Amino acid sequence: MRGLRSGAILLGGVLVLYAPARAARPAREGGSFTILSTLVETPGVSTREQAVRDRVRSLLPSWARPDVDAKGNLLVAAGPERGAKTLLFIAHMDETGYLVKSVRDDGSLEVKPLGGFFETLYEGQVVLVHTAKGDVGGVVPPRPNYLETTAADAPAAFGGDLVRVDLGVTTRPSAEALGVAVGDPITIPKTFQRLYGSYGSGRAVDDRAGCTALLTALRGLDTKTLRNRVIFAFSVEEEIGLNGAQALAQTLRPDLVIAVDTFVSSDSPLEREAFAHAVLGKGPVVRAIDSSNITDPAIVDRVLALARQNGLPIQYGLTRGGNDGSVFPEFGTPDLALSWPTVHSHSPVEVIHERDLDALGALVLLIAERW
Amino acid sequence: MTTGTRPVRRRPLAAGLVLLAAAWTAAGPAMAGQVEDAAALVRGLCAIGGVAGHEGQVRAALRKAAPSWATFEEDSLGNLTVTVGSGGTGLLLVAHMDEPGYVVTGITDRGYLKLQRLSRQPLPALFDQFHMGQPLLVQTRRAAVPAVAVVPSTHLWRGSAAPLNRPILDEDLFVDIGARTPGEVAAAGVALLDPVVIARRVVDLAAGRVAGPAMDDRAGCATLLRLLQTLEPSKLRGTLTVAFSAQELMGGRGAERLRNRLHAGDVLVIDAPAAGRAAVPGGGPAVSAPGGKEGYSQRLYNLVAEQAAESQIPLQNVAFTPGGTQAAFQGKSQVLAMGVPVQYAGTPGEVTDAHDVLALAQLLKAIAEAER
């Protein structure tokens, strides 16, 4: 066999061959997408965030001394123990996906969805089961009548118990011999793609972009001059109920919590612009109101002013979804949600603009140093 | 060796898989290496996009992977052929290179691409849904440009499937390459009529199976490549032409060109069986039943069955989609359809088995070396 393998990347039994595909504009070296692509390509379905946690740890500045709490949240603290204020920044490490619920007698897998997403996005697509022995390839079989015209009458009638994963084996022992076990996480093969015009796309940009912003800020932090105590938390289980943040709220009493997470935007030809319209590429977004929180307008104004005074583009608005910080107000801590605008949320092709992410990292740093 | 009697049809056999597996297990590491080689051919070919009329990258990959003795001819429609041997009733083996996909038919004021399917063959009702919300590739004249097919956001629909719960057609797709004006689209090198395919995500399943897009008919192309790699030209009986055809999905246009260009008495069309039929990956090559409306050749069927029996290769009798390549040769040549079984046909996760590729290549070699 000659020739055909060249240029292909074989990762854990996955041939990812986008080459010679390329964004029509050269990638910018050293931008936020360098970190983001690494994080996006690391699987971390809710409750199975270990690989992402390890990746985040490897990307921390050398001065950082990370702690991992009992829930699995990773925390990095800096600044005086008794600073003027204590600020808690949170971004979540987990992503939506599936877990193996059971191995059937015919060797296929029953699965359980974690987080909210259109399950049709997995129908007929290839996936990876991330086992203790390594990645195992699979396919989500389409609905039985997918070839019939009647299937198109209700294309979203797929999901729940209909979803299986076919590993190419026909018995339970064969599946188990591959290393597949109940509880193993399942994702699509994860690749971050740079698009034209400084856009990028991938699965779990939500909230690896938030993690990227925190890492960017940490790397830029001058810890010797900090007035405030700043804590950077990389949380678990946001997508299934803000569970990691709930654990943090039991032990931390910051003066302000800043949740860094997606602003789901209607900047798309399939959405209605009357709601949640923040434009990709026009800067970070203060998520002033969402399904879980209303930020104090005075805090919103202060962030907008800080950004503008420092030449950062900024937007603000209202969207749907919850954020990790929203579990803190009941304990007396106000919640500020900071975001980048995205489209196609919880799909394999969440889109982000690099300029928004660069500016978001800079804004997090500004708040840490000047709030 | 041909006879006029009709052999007992072999039914899809679960045992076939066991027999094959047992035989290959007994053969040990050498066979495992061959299975991996066949799987690598399949992976490599499926990793390339090629809609009808735009098969250039597939052609290039085939040329690169073929043995050095193979001299290719490329005709005006883009069919690629290798002819070897001489005399006798010519045998033509033909697998198609093209896959279902789209071409760019419009560019919106906001820089999104609009698409139209490029296929005259029926596709699954959910074909367009399988592309919505997935990464795509626009194959421009300069390079493949990454793109995404726009999909509604879960959050903005409060988890309701409402926006997707209606028939989704090609005209519903908006494709984002990251451009926000028609000028940026042009600057990215994207133009009207550029082909668009789903991004290539190919994964290995267990036991020699491979999943990804366009197994129909890259598995057939891989089979013919494997045949070329193992062929011993001096052992051939008569003339053998191996053809990789273009534009099969546009009604067998490439095959029609081959029909008029070549003189083959016997034609074996190497294609995936009709979607939804009972051919099982790993159960052995699929073969069409002789007779019927399609008029498949009883003589060729007997030859195939006999050679398969001699080589202990199980066959699966299944239906093939009528029309296309087969129809192009009917009336002029004896025709039989064969192929590598493909599961979940028409999805981006089509499944095929490298054992079947190996077995079919071995069977075709035996047929090419047999008296016809």
Please write out the topology.
The complex is a heterodimer of chains A (371) and B (372).
Chain A: E1 9-11, E2 14-16, H1 32-40, H2 50-59, E3 67-68, E4 74-78, E5 86-92, E6 97-103, E7 109-114, E8 126-131, E9 134-139, E10 164-165, H3 172-177, E11 185-187, E12 193-194, E13 199-202, H4 205-220, E14 229-235, H5 243-251, E15 256-260, E16 263-264, E17 285-289, H6 297-309, E18 315-318, E19 335-339, E20 341-342, E21 350-353, H7 354-370
Helix pairs in contact in A: 1-4, 4-7
Chain B: H1 14-27, H2 29-46, H3 56-65, E1 72-74, E2 80-84, E3 91-96, E4 102-107, E5 113-117, E6 135-139, E7 144-149, E8 174-176, H4 182-187, E9 195-198, E10 201-204, E11 209-212, H5 215-230, E12 240-245, H6 253-261, E13 266-270, E14 286-287, H7 298-310, E15 316-317, H8 324-329, E16 334-339, E17 350-353, H9 354-369
The H-and-E topology of chain B, N to C, reads as HHHEEEEEEEEHEEEHEHEEHEHEEH
Any idea what the CATH architecture of the largest domain in chain B is? 3-Layer(aba) Sandwich
Going across the biggest sheet of chain A, name each strand in turn. Answer: 3-4-14-5-15-19-17-18
Number of helices of chain A: 7
- Strands in their spatial order, largest beta sheet of chain B: 1-2-12-3-13-16-14-15
Query: Could you say what the CATH topology of the largest domain in chain A is called?
Result: Aminopeptidase
- At CATH level 3, the topology of the largest domain in chain B is Aminopeptidase
What features would you describe in this structure?
The complex is a heterodimer of chains A (371) and B (372). With 371 residues, chain A is an alpha+beta fold. Chain A folds into two domains: 11-95 and 191-370, 3-Layer(aba) Sandwich (Aminopeptidase), CATH 3.40.630.10; 97-187, Elongation Factor Tu (Ef-tu), domain 3 (Beta Barrel), CATH 2.40.30. Chain A contains seven helices and 21 strands. In chain A, strands 3-4-14-5-15-19-17-18 form an eight-stranded mixed sheet, with helices on one face. In chain A, strands 9-8-11-6-7-10 form a six-stranded antiparallel sheet. In chain A, strands 12-13-21 form a three-stranded antiparallel sheet. Chain B folds into two domains: 14-99 and 213-369, Aminopeptidase; 102-198, Peptidase M42, domain 2 (Elongation Factor Tu (Ef-tu), domain 3), CATH 2.40.30.40. In chain B, strand 6 and strand 7 form a beta hairpin. The longest helix of chain B has 18 residues, at 29-46. Mean pLDDT of chain B is 89; it is low at 1-22. Classes of the chains: A alpha+beta (371), B alpha+beta (372). Chains A and B meet through strand 2, strand 8, strand 9 and strand 12 of A and helix 2, helix 3, strand 7, strand 10 and strand 11 of B.
